[in-house]
Amino acid sequence: MQLFNGSQLLDTLPLSSGSAVFALPTASVAAFTLHAVYVGDDSFLSATSNEVTHQINRAATTSTLTISPTGSSKSGQNVVLTASVTGDAAAGVPSGLITFYDDINGKVVLGTASLSQLAVATLTVSDLSVASHFLSFVYSGDASFQSSDSTSTGAIKHDVDAAVTTIAFTSDPAVQSVYGQTVQLAATVSVQAPAVGVPSGFVSFVYASSGLPVAAGAVRPLINGVATLSVNGLAVSDPSGVTFLAKYSGDDRSRSSEQDLSHVVNKAVVVLNNVVATPNPSTYGQEVTIQGELSVVAPGAGIITGSVDLLWDGELLQSADVVQVNGVYTITFAVSAPVKGIPTLRYKIADYLVAPDGSLPINLLTITQGNVLPVLRCFILGSFGAHYDCCIAISQRLLSLPSQVSPPRRGTVSQ
């Protein structure tokens, strides 16, 4: 017996008890117009059957969607969508393309993936917005299997939460600085695992105690997750320091956060240099000008204001204002040179400055005592010449005159 599809011979089988059973090829969808032909034998003539039509359809499929992690994830976290397609095993293993969708605002295509030899396809997405999503997929089918979608599970709700953020808050110099020194504040904002991504937005640098900005322009943008602020003129703090606060505003994928930082601002140190005295040396009672230069030791900075007292053996001799000339701070004293004593300085300058120790380089100011030559007038009755030697002897004994006395002057004294 022969089986034909139209004019195409499909198979030839021997008769068994007057019949033959044919198996149609089902590897693909097809429409058949079938008839059988009996070729006859020694006892029977050949014969042809009537035509019979037969349609082979694609096998139905069932699709299932699973999502990991289940329920929710964090912003930027990988979300793995897995599509599984099953069908009639007699038809083989489904193949073809899976299209994944996000139904949050209509049907938005997330991506496509091909079914493996196990009829499984996966898609990993990491850019889902912070919101509730409804995820699904559609199987396109192949030559043997019908298309289907994830109706068995339906669109699965998946929530994406904003990332939790932390701030690494630092200062340069670290821990402490001096008045007038520039301090660089830096806030590095990062997301906590399993969230992934670099936060954007702004960081505000404020004083923790008052909430006031640390400086003008204290709201700084994040650039690659880092916001910086340069601060000048921070006020001198107490030993426990001043507390700054970095406040991150958050963005559409990251939560807001804040972090504090303590920083000590010390007084700037002032030194006295280039002290000169004119004239030097000087004699008792002569006017002497003493001048010195004050400067702030780097990295400190600031304006030196106030006055300085010149003391001699602890007694106030003169006060002088600090004067700035061509960017140089000077103090100038004009005093009569004392006979003896130790000069010191007492500073009355701005309270954000540490004054010098008060010493004055005495080796730069030499004061010498002038020669004092006593004059003794001897009025002795009688002849001056007769009593000259006695006059000189008495004078030397009483006054302990040095040997370098002025030459005696001789004369006549009437009284």
Question: Could you describe the 3D structure shown?
Answer:
The protein has 415 residues and is mainly beta. The protein has one helix spanning 384-399, and strands at 2-5, 8-12, 30-38, 47-48, 52-56, 61-68, 72-74, 79-87, 97-102, 108-114, 120-125, 132-139, 148-149, 156-161, 165-172, 176-178, 183-191, 202-207, 219-221, 226-231, 242-248, 257-266, 268-278, 282-283, 287-296, 306-312, 315-321, 323-325, 328-336, 343-349, 353-354, 367-368. The protein folds into five domains: 2-56, no CATH class; 61-161, Immunoglobulin-like, CATH 2.60.40; 165-266, Immunoglobulins (Immunoglobulin-like); 269-368, Immunoglobulins (Immunoglobulin-like, Sandwich), CATH 2.60.40; 373-415, no CATH class. Helices cover 4% and strands 46% of the residues. Strand 9 (97-102) and strand 10 form a beta hairpin. It is rod-shaped and about 165 Å long. Residues 372-376 and 397-406 have low confidence and may be disordered.
Which tags fit this structure?
415 residues; mainly beta; Immunoglobulin-like; five-stranded antiparallel sheet
Please name the CATH architecture of the largest domain: Sandwich
Task: Name the CATH homologous superfamily of the largest domain.
Answer: Immunoglobulins
Which runs of at least 5 residues are low in confidence (pLDDT < 50)? 372-376, 397-406
Question: How many domains is the backbone divided into?
Answer: 5
- Provide the structure class: mainly beta
**What is the subunit organization of this protein?**
single chain
Summarize model confidence as the mean pLDDT.
87
The 3D shape can be described as rod-shaped
CATH domain class of the largest domain = Mainly Beta
Tally of separate helices: 1
